Amino acid sequence: MKYEDFQHLLLEPQGNGVLLMTINRPDVMNATNARLHWELTKIWDVIQNDDKTKNVVVTGAGDRAFSAGGDLDWVANMVGNPKEVEAVRKEAADLVYNILSFEKPIISAINGVAVGAGLVVAMLADISIISKEKGKFTDGHVKLGVAAGDHAAIIWPLLCGMAKAKYYLMTAEFINGEQAEQMGMVSLCVPHGELMDEAFKVANKLAKGSQSAINGTKNTLNGWMKMASPIFEASLREEMLNFLSDDAKEGVAAVREKRAPNFPSAQ
C-alpha cells in the first residue's frame, strides 16, 4: 500500500523526516468505522518502509476530537455476531502488536476527546502530548457492557499504577489533560494553542538525534508491554466474549437512546 491508498488517514510529510498522520473523519469526530480500524492496523508497515520518515506525529482532524470511539453501526454489527467478533478480535490484536513492533518514534497530539481504537494509538505512542483545555479520554468499554480489551490492560497499570488503572477502567470515567499529566498517563499537557507546535518541536528534536540510539531505546522499553502479551490477549478474549452477551445489546441500545444502561447482569 501507498499513503494515497488510505481513505481515512491523511499522511503529510513535514520535512526533516517528520510525517504528520491525521485521523480524518471530522464529520463524525474521527470515529472509527470498519475501514479506519483496518487502516490503523496496516499503516505502520507502510511508514516503516518509508526511508524518508524518521518519526510520526498523530492527531485528529478538526478541533474537537482525536477519535471519538467506534462508529455505533459498526459496533452494533458485532453484537451477537461470532464471525464479526472474530474478525475484529484479530484486527484489534494486530493494531496493538503492529504499533509495538513499529521501530520509529510515534508522537500523539491529543487535540480532543479520545476513545476506542484512536485511544490505542494515543496511549501506545512513545510520547503523548495532550491539550490542556480540550483533551480528554476514557476507555469506555464497560459502558457498552464489554470488558476493557484493546490496549489498556498492558499499558495503563504501567503508566498510572494498578489502583488508578482499575478505577478508571472499571468506571469508564473521563480523564482530562491536567489529570492525565498528573497521573503519568501522558508525557506532556500544554495549552491547546501550543499543542501542534509542541508536537513538532519534539518530533524535530528526535529527527536530529541518533536514530539508532533513539529507536533502540524505544524498542527496548516496548519490551515491557510485549511481556504482558498474555494479559492483553486475555483482555481481548473477555471483551469479544462479552460482545455475544445481552449486556452488550443493552449497552449499544443505551448509547443509541442516550440513556443510562440497564444491564441484565446487574439485575
Textual characterization of the structure:
The chain contains 12 helices and 10 strands. With 267 residues, it is an alpha/beta fold. 49% of the residues lie in helices and 16% in strands. A 6-stranded mixed beta sheet has the order 1-2-3-5-7-10, with helices on both faces. The N and C termini lie far apart (49 Å). Helix 1 runs parallel beside helix 3 and helix 5 packs across helix 6 (162-171). It is globular. It has helices at 34-48, 72-78, 82-101, 117-124, 152-160, 162-171, 177-183, 195-207, 211-221, 223-227, 229-242, 246-257; strands spanning 9-15, 18-23, 55-60, 65-68, 106-110, 113-115, 127-131, 136-137, 175-176, 188-190. The mean pLDDT is 96. Strand 1 (9-15) and strand 2 (18-23) form a beta hairpin. The chain has a single domain (3-194, 207-258), classed as 2-enoyl-CoA Hydratase, Chain A, domain 1 (Alpha-Beta Complex).
CATH topology grouping: 2-enoyl-CoA Hydratase, Chain A, domain 1
Helix/strand order: EEHEEHHEEHEEHHEHEHHHHH
Helix/strand-derived category reads alpha/beta
The CATH architecture: Alpha-Beta Complex
Overall number of domains: 1
- Tell me about the largest β-sheet: 6 strands, mixed
Number of beta strands: 10
Compute the CA-based radius of gyration. Answer: 18 Å
Low-confidence stretches: none
The largest sheet has its strands arranged as: 1-2-3-5-7-10
The helical percent reads 40-55%
Shape: globular
Overall mean pLDDT: 96
The CATH superfamily label reads: 2-enoyl-CoA Hydratase, Chain A, domain 1
Can you count the helices?
Answer: 12
User: What's the CATH C level?
Assistant: Alpha Beta
> Into which percentage range does the β-strand content fall?
15-25%
